[in-house]
Amino acid sequence: MKSYFREATQITCALALVFSAACSTSHSATESTKAEPSRAIDVERAKSGEASDVLHGVTVKDPYRSLEVSDSPETKQFIESQNAFAKLSSLDADKKEVVIVDPSAIDKTGRTTIDFYNVSPNGKLVAVSLSKNGSEEGDVSIFEVASGKKVFETIPRVYIAGGDLEWTPDSKGFVYTRNPREGERPKEDMNVYTQIFHHKLGAATGKDSYELGKEFLRISQPKISDSKDGMILLAVQKGDGGEFMHFLRSKDGKWKKIADYSDRIAKFVFGEKQDIYGISLKDAPLGQIVHAPIKGFDVQKTSVVIKEGKEAIVGDIYSPNTLLISEGRMYVEYQTGGPSEIRAFELSGKEAEAPLAPAIASISNIAKLDKGRVLFAARSFLEPNAYYLFDPKTGKTARTSLAEKNPIDVSGYTVTREFARSKDGTMIPVNIVLPAGVKAGTPIPFIVTGYGGFNINFEPRFIGAYAALLKAGVGYATVNLRGGSEFGTAWHDQGSLTKKQNVYDDFIAAIEHLGKNKFADPNRIAIVGGSNGGLLMGAVLTQRPELFKAVIAMVGYYDMVRYENEPNGQLNATEYGSVKDKAQFEALYAYSPYHHIKEGVKYPATLFTVGATDVRVAPWHSRKMAARLQAATSGPLPLLITTFDAGHGAGSSVQQRIDQFTDSFSFVLSQFGMAGK
After folding, report:
1. Domain count, the chain
2. What is the per-residue pLDDT across 186-236, written as a single tens digit (0 to 9) for each?
3. What is the DSSP string of 562-604?
4. What 3-state class would DSSP assign to 87?
5. pLDDT interval class at 466 (50, 70, 90)
6. 168 closest CA partner among 127, 205, 220
7. In what order do the strands lie in the sheet with 231-238?
8. Can you give the residue range of the structural domain that contains 113?
9. CA-angle at 218, arms to 213 and 224, nearest 5°
10. Which of 407, 441, 584, 639 has its CA 20 to 30 A from that of 619?
11. pLDDT digit string (tens) for 582-620?
12. What residues contact residue 221 under an 8 Å CB cut-off, 6+ apart?
């Protein structure tokens, strides 16, 4: 079984990215193993007058005649951009991919990871943030696309559990997020106070020019949301609370605040006519689309072009292109309670024919190509990531060759969505995946997972290790808990701050639903969660220990009274609350896992995993929780695995991920009495 876990996980967790060369927006290395197009070729720039001929009485227009002049600057620029784009768009024919940056080749130990990358507008360079030992503390290096050779200087501390950059149109520099460098701040402030700087290639990084950020909060997190023709839109989040202010950088490099936190704008993007579109949550908790011209932009005078509907518009600033303007159409990603879908509209707001996507799937990386075509990625519980091409002229959606290989035959496997009734009556979606030949009424061993926090939608996704469990006869379920964004901001608000207990009640209700409806064998239920999901594990473990046979709790918070003592904990206070506030302290203390372990209780077998270099959640949470549980339980002693050269997970190497899945699910199978399966 361990060997199968390694094989299945390796296929789906490979992080050595294959780069192609025409992507101008940042791309998180954790989202996909393929580089996606970020914008269409700008063919409009190739026009230089409307040439035409009259032949036999027929006027023949020739708008791109200027491209006949081979050595003109305009033509050369056009050729460069087309070549770069061709390397990316292997959609109509299979083409050989070229590896530009492979972390395993840079670091033979496998401990270097790509945080994000961004390709220059001319397609010749790629800026790559690289971090080591899972630290998520990345420095940016520049590589030549043609040779893969590292060139120019390294820019330090661009990425600290988050970061970004945007090239200037001439490809000679970029605007980037800069974290404090040695000697600039006290040790406790080195991972906060992020600002915006500009770097020119070939210049010493100490001479980079400051642009924006002195007015930001200590816990502000800036993220570039869009760019066009030298202009940049920047979103600045207040901690992790989902509140943003927004700035516009004009072509002359000047910044202007265009929306404050109170304006409730989730995201801005550029339109095609010197205008801006935005996702507004003001008086619209499910989101609406607003619009205004760039000239004289006033957020108070935007017009609503798509009104709030019954489902939530995805406004996540960290998900690229959930709102895309292309060839007179708007493509908008909607949340449908866990799964997502793309809807299309004319610029007037009238609905248009939309791309077709697989059922119960999650959509990502919507991107515009030439001729109005749109590319997007989709994945489901049973199918790994694949890219699809939509042509609005024909209305057809086609699967492309850009697709990950499925390591197992999923014939006969089923996915159903049911709803569990939570303690307060709220109906909670439960996504149930069953092995081939298994139906409700035949209880089997089950693994259940959830997240429930930070406005994050827990979407369908394919995980190789879960595929291995299915093959072994284990079912699994994911739960769309309050605290996420599955049903808009109200759904999140019902699971945050003083209402966080709702999340744990939701998860417990889902477990009971699976047992009551004979999906799961009540004596063989394991739960697994990481980060905020690790806190979820700790909370339900201490509140209802009799429900579970085994628990896997990864990199979680467990001492909610002292979590704010760490820098990243202060960012998370917008989600969990602060002990400085009486009501919030009472709520935190009421569910704090570490403080609710009781002597002599038979707790289920528990495995805690943690990375020693974690900058998001202090490793001491896991150490304290494991020690307290070991001292108190009358059941199996909990296990704690610390990986010394790993962090929170996003920066883990391929081998570390394989090892973690292997250890975790071998542990579960042993508790199920299925060791060796």
Report:
1. 2
2. 988 888 899 999 999 999 999 999 999 999 998 899 999 999 999 999 999
3. TGGGSHHHHHHHHHH--TTSHHHHHHHHHH-GGGG--TT--PP
4. helix
5. confident
6. 127
7. 220-228, 231-238, 244-249, 255-259
8. 1-46+62-214
9. 45
10. 584
11. 999 999 999 999 999 999 999 999 999 988 888 889 888
12. 162, 194, 236, 237, 239, 240, 571
pLDDT: which is higher, 16 or 598: 598
pTM (global) more than 0.85: no
The 3-class secondary structure across 218-280, one letter per residue, is CCEEEEEEEEECCEEEEEEEECCCCCEEEEEECCCCCEEEEECHHHCEEEEEECCCCEEEEEE
Is 609 part of a structural domain of the chain?
A: yes
Q: How far apart are CA 172 and CA 121, in angstroms?
A: 10
pLDDT digits (tens, 9 = 90+) for 259-311: 999 999 999 999 999 999 999 999 999 999 999 999 999 999 999 999 999 99
Cα 676 vs. chain centroid, distance in angstroms?
34
Helix (H, G, I), strand (E, B) or coil at 32: coil
Judged against a pLDDT cut of 70, whether residue 543 lies above it is answered with yes
Cα–Cα distances in angstroms (integers) from residue 353 to residues 238, 331, 337, 395, in the given order: 37, 10, 22, 7
Gap between the Cα atoms of 594 and 604, Å rounded: 15
CB 675 within 8 A of CB 669: yes
Closest among 580, 571, 527, 567 to 549, alpha carbons compared = 527
CATH no. for residue 507? 3.40.50.1820
Query: Does the residue 348 lie in any domain?
Result: no
Residue 46 has pLDDT above 90, yes or no: no
Which of 161, 187, 214 terminates a domain? The answer is 214
Specify if 162 maps to a domain. Answer: yes
- What's the mean pLDDT in 23-40? 34
67 falls within a domain? yes
- Alpha helical stretches, state H, 131-190: none
Tell me which of 183, 214, 245 is where a domain ends: 214
Record the tokens describing residue 45, joined without a space: 């720039």
Ramachandran category for residue 568: left, alpha or beta (phi over 0 → left; psi -120 to 50 → alpha): alpha
CA atoms within 13 A on the CB side of 108: 0
Q: How far is CA 361 from the centre of its chain?
A: 15
The CA distance from 423 to 444, in Å, is 25
